[in-house]
Design goal:
Helix content is 31%, strand content 18%. By secondary structure, it is an alpha/beta fold. Helix 1 links the parallel strand 1 and strand 2.
Amino acid sequence: MTRRFLFLLGSSRADGNTELLARRAAEQLPGDVEQQWIDLAAHPLPDFEDLRHDSDFTRPTDGNTGLLFDATTTATDIVIASPLYWYSVSAHTKRYLDHWAGWLRIPGVDFRATMAGRTLWGVTALADHEPVVAAPLIGTLNNSAAYLKMRFGGVLLGNGSKPGDVLTDAEALTRAKTFFQQEAPLARFAFEED
């Protein structure tokens, strides 16, 4: 099966540090790996409305919701490229993940089974020099992957505040060279015990 990477850009700024770092990591992928890049700010989703007790969910076919549903369900690897905003993912990214709750309830589409075994990755730039502040973002992605029985490749962290700063983070750029080459284990909830 051909690997197909879906890169979801969650920044409110075009060509931000997170996107620059994600693109550096993506440059290392083999040429036969398909890549699809979607900017969530340019393809906004409506706020998620929880209708599970009021009506049936239907498979989205039109607009940005249909585009993102199709891209998500056909990807082998999903890369959430979200800057660290208030210690978690951006609003664009959170809205996208919220839609997963609706996709789980679409009749005839077993979203959980479709996503099981695929890999979720993260890329983020943060202004803080202490990586521990990204723990809530990492937990959000890890636990989302665990819920769907996905693999979790971890989060590539870079440091940067002003545009282009991440390109001076030599450690992040070195990690980017091999980030997608690592074997991603099956995700486990952060609070699970061995």
